Amino acid sequence: MHLLMTAHRELLTTTIGGARMCISLLDRLAALFDAEESSDESRAFDIGYGILRQLIEEGLIASGIAKLRAVSDTPSDREEEAITPHQTTLLKLLDSYLQSSACAHDFPSARRRTEDGDELLRMLSHTFLLLSSYVQGSIERSLGPRTANSGDTTKLHVADQEAGSPRAESDAIDHAAPSSGSDSSPLAPQELDLLLPKVCEALVLVTQCLTSITLRAEEAECTYTRSAGPEAQLGAPLSPKQVLATAVTSDGRGLVEILTGAWRTNEYARPRIHTSAWPEVLITHPHDRNIASS
User: Fold this and answer.
1) Mutual orientation of helices 40-57 and 85-100 as an angle, nearest 10°?
2) How many CA atoms lie within 13 A of 6 on its CB side?
3) What letter does residue 36 receive in the DSSP assignment?
4) Rounded distance between C-alpha atoms, residue 129 and residue 127, angstroms
5) Alpha carbon distance 36, 10 (integer Å)
6) pLDDT tens, position by position, 152-168
7) Can you tell me the distance from the alpha carbon of 134 to that of 262, in angstroms, rounded to the nearest whole number?
8) Distance in angstroms (rounded) separating the CA atoms of residues 263 and 290
9) Is 119 exposed, middle or buried (0-12, 13-18, 19+ CB in 10 A)?
């Protein structure tokens, strides 16, 4: 059943009025996520999801996600929010489609991707870099000067590992977490970003979408190459991995720089576990415990 004509679907993603209708639809769908199966609410969700699924299959979802930002309440909201709630809801539905829809296998295929499919892939790649940069910057602002203070210690630990020092493994946690008496002792966050959890949620969704597209494209590429031969690679469009590898942020950072920067920042921010505080527990086989109790 065609819920919308093609012209109407395009209006939903290319006009301000259509974007506002999408926002109302997404608000309603977000409220119906947990509806009981076979209920009226569940059927209403299926109808709304069917409309958005058509946008995905028509290759209009990339422009739709971009248009949602254009209808934010105020210009200041657009500047402050890395991702809007409605964009996050749309990413949830896109992720669900890519993981469960039978038609989704052809959509990200490296051999069948259209210009619209490339647009979605590039939009997701750009969004991944944008959100990753935001998360990294937010954590660095929260840590304050401690990131810089911890750098020398981390470099020393890395040098120990490269040199094969036997104490590198046991001292890793102590080097990463300064003692309470040092100048770089843990302090309260310098800045609290209330948007960070929502941005992380959207980043996970974008990552899942990219993973689904990349894996399915690799499967389709292997199948096509086996049937058509290696010469079929000539003149082929960029694969999802190649699109990701060539994507850059506005300041010129690529995927590798973003990932290494995020890893480094998370190393400073993640909680530390001190193994010296763990109680000594004798681990025995369940059979031994049964014998002892008898």
Assistant:
1) 80
2) 3
3) P
4) 5
5) 32
6) 444 434 444 444 444 44
7) 10
8) 45
9) middle
